[in-house]
Amino acid sequence: MNLPILHELSTCKSILIAGAGGGFDVFQDYPFILNWKSVVSMFILPTFPFRILPD
Q1: Which stretch of DSSP H or E encloses residue 7?
Q2: What is the rounded CA–CA span in Å between residue 51 and residue 40?
Q3: How far apart are CA 21 and CA 46, in angstroms?
Q4: Residue 49 — φ and ψ, nearest 5°?
Q5: Cα 37 from Cα 34, distance rounded (Å)
Q6: If phi over 0 gives left and psi between -120 and 50 gives alpha, with beta otherwise, what is residue 10?
Q7: Is residue 29 a contact partner of residue 19, using CB atoms and an 8 Å limit?
Q8: I need a labelling partner for 39 at 20 to 30 A (CA). Which of 5, 10, 20, 52 fits?
Q9: Which residues contact 15 (CB under 8 A, 6 or more apart)?
Q10: pLDDT tens profile 9-37
Q11: Which residues lie closer than 8 Å to 6 by C-beta, 6 or more apart?
Q12: What is the pLDDT confidence band of residue 55, given thresholds at 50, 70 and 90?
């Protein structure tokens, strides 16, 4: 990956990668995490579902 933001991320201790539900957002994050796991010590992967659950 050759993105300008990657230089900024190289000094981070943790990275938050937020998804928007569906599960595919998490799978798309794995290549990024695998490339950066030696540089960044913690990744946070929250996901926000669109479906409203009944009470």
Answers
A1: helix 5-9
A2: 32
A3: 9
A4: -75, 150
A5: 5
A6: alpha
A7: yes
A8: 20
A9: 9, 36, 40, 42, 43, 44
A10: 888 888 888 877 666 677 788 888 888 88
A11: none
A12: confident
| Residue 43: its H or E element | strand 42-44
Element (H, E) at 42: strand 42-44
In one-letter notation, the amino acid at residue 32 is: F
User: Residue 13 is which amino acid?
Assistant: K
Q: How far apart are CA 49 and CA 21, in angstroms?
A: 4
Nearest to 10 by CA among 43, 40, 33, 32: 40
